[in-house]
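Q: Convert this sequence to structure tokens.
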Amino acid sequence: MKRRMFFAGCLYFITTLKQLENRLYNIISKKSNPWCIVIMNGIIDLCFGMLIKHPSAWHIKIKQNIILNIYIVKYRFCIDKITDFTLKRINLQVNDRNDEKPVFINMPRPFLATVSTNPSSGEMVYELMAEDPDTNSQIEYILESGGDSKFKIDNVIVKNRRVGKIVTAVSGNGQFIRGREYELVVSARDIGVSPEVQKSNFEIVKVLVGKRPPQFFMNPYIAYITENNRPGYKLVTKEGNAIKIMAKPFQSRDPEGGIQFEGSVTYQLLDEKNQSSSLFSIGSNGEVDALQSLDYEDRTTHTFSLLVIGREESSQMESSTQLKVHLVDVNDNDPIFQLSTYTDYTSEGTAVDTMLFSELKYSVSDDHFKVETRNDTKNNVYVGDIKVAKQLDYDFITDHLYKFNVTVTDNGLIPRSGWARIVIYITNINDEKPRFRTGLEEIYFSIREDQTSGSYVTTIQASKNLQDISFSTKWDLMHLRKLYIVDMETVKHKFLSDKRLTAPNGPFAIDPTSGLITLTSSIPPSVSSYILNITAYDDGSCCGGYPKLHRDSYIVVEVKDINNNNPKFPSCNYAPEVMENQDIGTRVIDIVATDDDRGRNGEITYSVVVPPGQQQYFEINPENGTLYTSQRLDRESQQGLRGYSVTVKAEDNGEPQHLNSLCTFWVRVGDQNDNAPQFDSTSYSQRIQRNFGLQDLVTKVLATDKDQDKNAEVAYFLIENPGDYFQIDQDTGVISLAKSVSGISQETQIPLVVMAQDKGTPPLNANITVTITVTMGSMEAPTWDETYDGRTYTVAETQQIGYTIAKMSATSSVPPPLDSVSFSIVKPDGSTTQVLGNFRIVSSDKEMELKLNRQLNYTENHSYTLRLRAENQGLSPLSREIRVTVIVKDMNNLRPVFEGLDKQLSNLYRGSVPENEPVYREVINVRAVKYSLYPDRYNVYQLFTIDSTSGLIKTNTTFDREKQKVYYLIVEAKDGKPSDMPFHEPPNTPNSATATVQVIIGDKNDNPPVINQSLYTKSIHEQPPDSSKSILKIYNLTVTVSDGYHTSRCRVVLTVIDINDNAPEFQKPEYIIDDVVEEEVPPLPEGQFLLQCFKLLLFFIFKGFVGPFMN
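A:
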């Protein structure tokens, strides 16, 4: 049998065209053939509309075979006879085609994951797995969007499977903010086919920064158990497999970063009363066992709704799911008759076809009912069938019965009618679900974040009552309204755990009977609200326990933040620099402070604290903390040379008081080349002789630049030099003789112009005139006895006036008696003086002393350069100048200065701390040098501690605001060495200063409400007067008063006084006496007995109380 050709839609052709004649084909067996395959005239083909397609499980195999056994018969139609037959076996090989797109197989859904707040780069977050039914598929995982570039997907092979590991792409503090959830859109594509790419549907992976409760794989789980089981019987699925409940933990990881399922989650099984189930138990492996044998016929309920709580051991976080267990009936009971014998009676004398009544018509007086007239032909009577016309309601009928009249009318010529009183007692069925109040005040509640376990949250009470007990708005409950209750069926409450909860039940517990909701633990700091889903359910006790109804509702519990956290600066090591001469409003740096509180308590306002007596150079954006200049800054000013100390206060907007913290740092001012060099004199002059030697020093000019570094380096140039007699050293400013002046025949002045230029960009310069006078004499200028020029002298700033800085001498070249030398200080304008600023000279003959004229101050100037001139005597005196530098030595002669004192608070610090906080709570950080707390007469300093280095003040005890609201501390700051101040006492001790710190104790709600009495009693009349209302005689109420944090309770006993508001009622509307004989004389004196009548008052039995019933 040869394969000749393929047709469109043809699988195989098993014969030649000539052989088609006189042959019949039939498939007698089809092995591994899930498709409809037919054979016509030797062509094997699919049924119309069918496709060969692998079932998913078959894709594990590389190839799939279809085995056909075909029966071929040779048939002679002319003689209608089979002449030959052949049995053939055909093996069709099905090759896979890459036509399926990948499908994600991750469980559970939705895809949830967590990441820590400070992960390392490449930390495992979630592992994606997808399957492609095709055999030649190659799956690649893609992060389509989301995650702010903080995540990536690594495609790896794990256990021969291609998986996509979602890992972190960044690391470091601040990258991931606790409580934020990222939604990563992912896909999987098959890159094994080209050019087309089979791509999966998009999926979302939700990654929460922080911790997440376990996630169950199903909700609900459905399980089955047959009756008459034995204890230990394992519950099964619909397919008959043992059910296994699993929850995915998020905090438990194995060494490779994957989820650790084994032993990570423990399970608890609760019944409908939120108690441990007495019928079933769950093991650590999630398998559920029966604890006792169950009988289907003994139970009114055959479906058990259980709550499975899964708690992750490492984090103690928990979630829940539902488990519904169906009890399966087994045919284990025989049918039975209700009675062993059935009997009935009728009179044997009743005539056949006897007409008892003529045709009758019935009507009723209550539209809840109707009467249909029925002709009973068998008994030849007209019957009025009373039927219900519209819905009856037990709850809305005050005494639970209907009274109405039925009127019957015949069809006589003169119609006659009669009536009867009908009383129908209504039995109750449980058709009213519990009701919640739905006002906003009944849905939205709030608690404080610092409430602890056992704290009162609220009371939720669903009711079956159609008319509730309500009270006046005054909390004393002495004015009672609407005291009657229609239905006292027991209503209980429980939490309904589902996906709408922010956290499964949160840290809350509810009392099933009273609906009292309390906290079971403290509230996590990241949670701002909870949505609690609550189910109110009755017990069906009104109606035999069946059915049991429930109604679901919810409440929103807002977690109110308490302002118990001071703002904090994550770092106060700021060292910004701003260039001088910038426009006002130039940004300097962004200051960042954080506050762990929420809402307005966590909103931070920034401000600059300006110490008293100081000018404000900076302002700050109060909202974002951007510091900017409020003045143009000059680096060359006295303040600019030191830098600027800035104290920023971060203060929250909390209530009842604002909390704050301080951060002090220095702002350096960058240099711009904005100052030209300045000469130390307005002009220079010098006299030399004709015989002055070449290269000898004539004079020296000096220019200084207030700028810094390269901007302050000065070079000197001669820009006017008549005759080119002189030259200048560019670095030192020394002017020397470059060409002999001996050829000058008379006294001549040679004006030079010297330029001093700095090395800034662009360079700045200044010019000065230097006048050189060439004299005709032969005398020389005086000479200094030592090389005093350029010397440096250090003087302590604490030296007293008159202190001798240096002694100098000079020698004149003039012979006696004119050989004396005069000394002077050269002023900037070129004139001379004996006293200049802080200095003066005292001279005698050829010696001089440089002395202090005023006390020096290191903070004002660090150094001084003085020009000293020695001049001889004569008609044309000559002089020689030198320059010396006086360095001011800084001494410990100033007291410490506190930074950041608030001048609006009389120059003190203000800190705060909430009451009832544990010890070592931070209060405020003061800034000076070395710190200690100064003893006071009330020993307040013992209640606090201070870090001697950082100045951080902390509490040393717990405070109670109701005892004292504010404290004042005196902080003493000392520098680190003995004082250099004159007359300092005691000697050899450091300088010190003190500052006052005001500490405000923040209020907390730490006192419960006060109820004057533990028991209130009152008697009231029933209201309104209505005989149809069923009432209790005594009401025992428990009243809870809450201030949102603390609760107090008292009892209220109300006694209801009955009032005579019901008239008597006869049992029958009509009494007939027909046995009185008119001639008979009644006996005396008591008379003849005719009839006894009863009047019915009311008969009430209500929870053990019996009212009056007969009179």
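The chain has a mean pLDDT of 78.
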